[in-house]
Amino acid sequence: MLALLVLPILHTPQVQAGGDELPPPDLQMVTSENMIRRGNSLVMDLVLAQAGTTALSVANLDGREIWTGAASFAAGQNRVKFRVGDLPSGTYFLKVTTGSGSDTQTFAIR
């Protein structure tokens, strides 16, 4: 079972420099490696230009979505913690989608 926890972090809002187009979300690994032991958690920083609801999904190497969810995030930096639970060993894709675009990171469970 995969669980999402949004951890409190100092929010650093980004200022939009003219124009109507917002930059896409930026998803960055916080964990020192992208290899996670079963039962542990994956921690990532999510930087958003604008507050709002964000769609999240995890897919396996075959592209099959094994988890989807949505959460509200503040503008700026947000720390996101995923408990990977009993996911089998393998490589996965974490995708974050907002109205301005999407970003995907790869992680592996051993």
User: Would you report the number of β strands?
Assistant: 9
Gross morphology is: globular
Distinct helical segment count: 0
Strand order of the largest sheet: 3-9-8-5-6
- Runs with pLDDT <50, length 5+? 6-18
Strand content: over 45%
Task: Describe this entry's structure for a reader.
The chain is mainly β. Helix content is 0%, strand content 57%. It is built from no helices and nine strands. The protein has strands at residues 3-7, 26-29, 35-36, 41-48, 52-60, 65-73, 76-83, 90-98, 101-109. The strands form two sheets. A five-stranded mixed β-sheet has the order 3-9-8-5-6, with no helix packed on it. It has a four-stranded antiparallel β-sheet with strand order 1-7-4-2, with no helix packed on it. It is globular.
A few lines on this structure:
By secondary structure, this protein is an all-beta fold. Helix content is 0%, strand content 57%.
Give the topology, please.
Blueprint: E1 3-7, E2 26-29, E3 35-36, E4 41-48, E5 52-60, E6 65-73, E7 76-83, E8 90-98, E9 101-109
Parallel strand pairs: 3-9
Antiparallel strand pairs: 1-7, 2-4, 4-7, 5-6, 5-8, 8-9
Keywords:
110 residues, mainly beta, five-stranded mixed β-sheet, four-stranded antiparallel β-sheet, 9 strands, 0% helix, globular
